[in-house]
């Protein structure tokens, strides 16, 4: 499997029956494709949906049903749609169990920068600032480095922040990292890698869990 699929499968395995989950645009939307059969995860979209289903087949396409990233979606039986005021009432009221977001940078204190690169045109922060504060747990799902191979996990974010000290877990193609008051802890590592290899492309120091697990063995939906 490719790197993005590995990340999405690992995040999917963290979600349980009855969880209410918001998926950010880009890579996080792939998580919905790897939920284990029989597990009912309720996906929420901040533009006003609860109970999102998979992407539609060509004959199911409805131009009025799109997620917050303007991607076509379906609604599962029992799902609902409503206005943005109610949607953000759900988010701000603490009713979202997990939000899964991409990131430009994350640092060792759990600060998140995922909405702006100075000098480039951006659509705005959107609902991310509400989601990272309102959700019970924040998972960052991203590739470990930039396209130029530079670390995205830093000692301190350099880009404008989306939120301060809100990230709980970072999932990349190299491993699963927990954000703790004592710093970043490498809890799982991708098969074939060593902690030293992960540290070499991580600007923040990593502590290695005493019971370090192999990430691939924890996957959802038919991992290795």
Features of the shown structure:
224 residues; 10-stranded mixed β-sheet; 4 helices; alpha/beta
Walk me through what this model shows.
This protein has 224 residues and is α/β, with parallel strands linked by helices. The chain has a single domain, classed as Glutaconate Coenzyme A-transferase, CATH 3.40.1080.10. Helices cover 15% and strands 27% of the residues. The chain contains 4 helices and 13 strands. It starts with a helix and ends in a 10-residue tail after the last strand.
Set down the secondary structure blueprint.
Layout: H1 3-13, E1 20-23, E2 42-45, E3 49-52, E4 75-81, H2 84-92, E5 98-101, E6 105-107, E7 112-113, H3 128-134, E8 137-141, E9 153-154, E10 169-172, E11 175-180, E12 183-189, H4 195-200, E13 206-214
Parallel strand pairs: 1-2, 1-5, 5-8, 6-9, 8-10, 12-13
Antiparallel strand pairs: 2-3, 3-4, 6-7, 10-11, 11-12
């Amino acid at each position: 499997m490719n790197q993005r699929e590995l990340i999405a499968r690992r995040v999917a395995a963290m979600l349980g029956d009855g969880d209410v989950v918001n998926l950010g645009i880009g890579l996080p939307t792939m998580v919905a494709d790897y939920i284990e059969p029989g597990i009912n995860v309720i996906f929420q979209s901040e533009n006003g949906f609860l109970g999102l289903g998979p992407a539609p087949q060509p004959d199911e396409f409805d131009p009025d049903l799109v997620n917050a990233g303007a991607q076509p979606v379906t609604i599962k039986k029992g799902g609902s749609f409503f206005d943005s005021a109610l949607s953000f009432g759900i988010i701000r009221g603490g009713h979202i169990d997990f939000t899964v977001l991409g990131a430009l940078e994350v640092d060792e204190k759990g600060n998140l920068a995922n909405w702006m690169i100075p000098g480039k045109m951006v659509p705005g922060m959107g609902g991310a600032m509400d989601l990272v504060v309102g959700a019970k747990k924040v998972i960052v799902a991203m590739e470990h480095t930039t396209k130029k191979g530079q670390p995205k996990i830093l000692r301190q974010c350099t880009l404008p922040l989306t939120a301060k000290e809100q990230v709980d877990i970072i999932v990349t193609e190299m491993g699963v990292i927990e954000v703790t008051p004592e710093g970043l802890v490498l809890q799982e590592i991708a098969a074939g890698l060593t902690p030293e290899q992960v540290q070499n492309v991580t600007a923040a120091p990593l502590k290695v869990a005493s019971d370090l697990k192999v990430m691939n063995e924890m996957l959802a939906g038919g991992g290795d």
